[in-house]
Each structure stands twice: as structure tokens, then as C-alpha cells.
UniProtKB/TrEMBL annotation:
Family annotation (InterPro entries): Creatin/AminoP/Spt16_N (IPR029149)
Protein name according to UniProt: Uncharacterized protein
Length: 86
């Protein structure tokens, strides 16, 4: 593997991840939906992938977004990467 390990986490987990010495790149997003940014976590993730230079690269994911459970409404990762966060 090349490069530093990175992680995107909700603000609530920030203190826990700070204890992990191997993780060098930590990107924190405010709690959703109540954190005030109004930005969906997958949009934060797409932004983080761009910062890491991974937009347009082949990456592995389990799914293209959150599973449609309990009435989930939100973008897919591919839409968020395309700039369509809605």
C-alpha cells in the first residue's frame, strides 16, 4: 500500500480516532442531519476522495451508497462524486 491511511468519521468519533497512531489523515464531518452543515455524509466522503486524489480512480466499495433501509433518502456515491449531492 502506498500513502497514509485516511478515514472519514462523524465528529462524535474524533477523540477515538485521535488515539490511532497509524491513521494520519482524519477528516471529520458534523453529525448528520443535525450538525448544521446540511451536507450529506456521502458528499463529505466524495470530497475526501477528491482531496486524496482518488476521484476518477478505481476504488472498491460494498455498494454505491447506503442501503435503502428504513426510508433512507440520499445520494449514491457515484452521484456525489459527479457533483450531484441530491
Amino acid at each position: 500500500m502506498e500513502g497514509d491511511l485516511g478515514i472519514l468519521i462523524p465528529q462524535l468519533e474524533q477523540d477515538h480516532v485521535a488515539k490511532a497512531a497509524l491513521i494520519r489523515r482524519v477528516k471529520v464531518y458534523p453529525e448528520y442531519p443535525g450538525g448544521g452543515s446540511g451536507k450529506h455524509p456521502l458528499v463529505h466522503f466524495a470530497d475526501f476522495l477528491r482531496e486524496l486524489g482518488l476521484a476518477g480512480k478505481r476504488i472498491a466499495t460494498d455498494t454505491d451508497g447506503y442501503m435503502d433501509l428504513n426510508g433512507y433518502v440520499g445520494p449514491t456515491l457515484s452521484r456525489a462524486l459527479a457533483g450531484d449531492g441530491g
